[in-house]
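Reviewer 2 asked us to include a model.

Predict the structure of this chain.
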Amino acid sequence: MIRLNSKEEEVMNIFWKLKKAFPKEIIEKISPPVPPYNTVLSLIRKLEKDGFIKHNKIGKSHQYYPTITKRVYQKSILGHLFKDYFGGSPERFLSFFIKEENLSEEEVKALLEKYEKNKGK
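Predicted model (structure tokens):
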């Protein structure tokens, strides 16, 4: 799966939140500076071409909806980062995360407890 740029991710997050939307509804939710209508429409068409969304024709308009879940996208992107930047090593990944976020020993323990609690779900 391809990695989306920041504007594409913003639009996809809007689609995931709204479930389905017309282009003008997307434009209403985009954070400033809001690109011109035609730019947003081009972005939506690219997302459709790349397989992230599809549309239903309603009158003269198109209502778009996501074809993949946010979870599937997150898993794909995180998988690539994990493999490409951490060599697939959980130790390297966790060590980097703990150092970068300056997590205390208590915070790490809390995360492990949360993991253990949710492991079977």
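The chain has two domains: 6-66, 70-118. The CA atoms of residues 39 and 45 lie 10 Å apart. We have added this to the supplementary material.
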